[in-house]
């Protein structure tokens, strides 16, 4: 009896498994047909991924403009002073610069010129190198750079604050009824105005210095002294020189006699006295 019950239970279990297999198969087949009929996925370009990752935005590049004051001092010796001076004006114009001041001097057989050049900061090094290359000898070359970016931003921020404060004082001035209040507010406005003008002037000057760099150029050429005689002098020159030398010797001799006149006088008197005594004895 237990064996029959066990066999019946196994038969029912096998029958149930077959039913489940038949029910699952059609679903699997329909799923395969659905996948086969589905549209293909769009292809993704690797180039587009490299350019901009999905879900990420590229950061914007923030330009950082530095405000620099560049100055240079250059002293050079040149061969042809006139040619270098003419070429200097042309060269400065080519580099969009200008000559702010110029001073020429001639002393100690040297022709010299001191020139202050203003040139755009982006072409500062180019012009400086060109001037250095055109010289036959560089005596001095100094370059200095000052970063005033933060200082200029600070001045601009304080300037805006001063202007806003002035506007508030002007509004308060309109509402003032007491003469003392009017005078006090007016003094504050005048003081603010002076500060604003001073800061504006400083900011403008620094802005110009950061736009145009300064080159203090000194160039000179040595001039030969053509007045000095070259070679052996001729007969005429030697004859004239000898006469001058003889006259000079005579003059020196007369000066010597003038210095010795007391001794000459004493000697002359002594000689006359002795001569007179000798004549008396005779």
Quick structural summary:
The chain has 282 residues and is of the alpha+beta class. The chain has eight helices and five strands, in the order ααβαββαβααβαα. The chain starts with a helix and ends with a helix.
SSE layout:
Elements: H1 2-37, H2 46-51, E1 68-77, H3 81-94, E2 98-107, E3 110-120, H4 124-133, E4 137-147, H5 149-175, H6 179-211, E5 212-222, H7 235-259, H8 261-281
Parallel strand pairs: 1-5
Antiparallel strand pairs: 1-4, 2-3, 3-5
Structure, described:
The protein is α+β, with helices and mostly antiparallel strands. The protein is 61% helix and 19% strand. The chain is built from 8 helices and 5 strands. The protein has a 5-stranded mixed sheet. A hairpin with a 2-residue loop joins strand 2 (98-107) and strand 3. Helix 5 packs antiparallel against helix 6. It is elongated, with a radius of gyration of 53 Å. The model is unreliable at 19-64 (pLDDT under 50).
Quote the distance from N terminus to C terminus.
214 Å
Order of helices and strands: HHEHEEHEHHEHH
Q: What amount of the residues lies in strands?
A: 15-25%
Shape: elongated
- Annotation, overall tally of beta strands: 5
Question: What would the average pLDDT be, to the nearest integer?
Answer: 75
| Spans where pLDDT lies below 50 across 5 or more residues | 19-64
Q: Going across the biggest sheet, name each strand in turn.
A: 2-3-5-1-4
Main sheet makeup: 5 strands, mixed
**Helical percentage:** 55-70%
Radius of gyration: 53 Å
Helical segment count: 8
Protein structure class: alpha+beta
């Amino acid at each position: 009896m237990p064996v029959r019950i066990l066999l019946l239970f196994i038969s029912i279990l096998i029958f149930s498994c077959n039913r489940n297999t038949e029910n699952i198969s059609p679903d699997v087949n329909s799923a395969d047909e659905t996948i086969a009929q589905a549209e293909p996925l769009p292809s993704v370009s690797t180039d587009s991924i490299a350019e901009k990752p999905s879900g990420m935005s590229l950061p914007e590049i923030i330009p950082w403009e530095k405000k620099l004051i560049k100055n240079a001092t250059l002293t050079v010796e040149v061969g042809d002073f006139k040619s270098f001076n003419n070429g200097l004006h042309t060269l400065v114009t080519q580099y969009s610069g200008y000559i702010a001041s110029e001073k020429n001097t001639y002393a100690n057989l040297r022709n010299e010129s001191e020139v202050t050049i203003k040139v755009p900061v982006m072409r500062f090094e180019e012009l400086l190198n060109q001037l250095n290359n055109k010289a036959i000898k560089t005596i001095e070359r100094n370059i200095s750079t000052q970063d005033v970016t933060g200082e200029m931003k600070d001045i601009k921020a304080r300037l805006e604050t001063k202007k806003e404060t002035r506007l508030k004082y002007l509004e308060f001035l309109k509402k003032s009824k007491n003469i003392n209040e009017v005078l006090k507010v007016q003094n504050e406005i005048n003081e603010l105005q002076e500060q604003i003008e001073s800061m504006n002037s400083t900011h403008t000057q620094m802005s110009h210095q950061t736009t145009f760099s300064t080159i203090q150029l000194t160039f000179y050429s040595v001039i030969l002294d053509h007045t000095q005689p070259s070679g052996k002098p001729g007969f005429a020159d030697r004859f004239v020189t000898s006469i001058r030398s003889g006259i000079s010797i005579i003059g020196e001799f007369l000066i010597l006699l003038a210095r010795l006149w007391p001794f000459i006088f004493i000697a002359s008197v002594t000689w006359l006295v002795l001569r007179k005594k000798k004549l008396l004895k005779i």
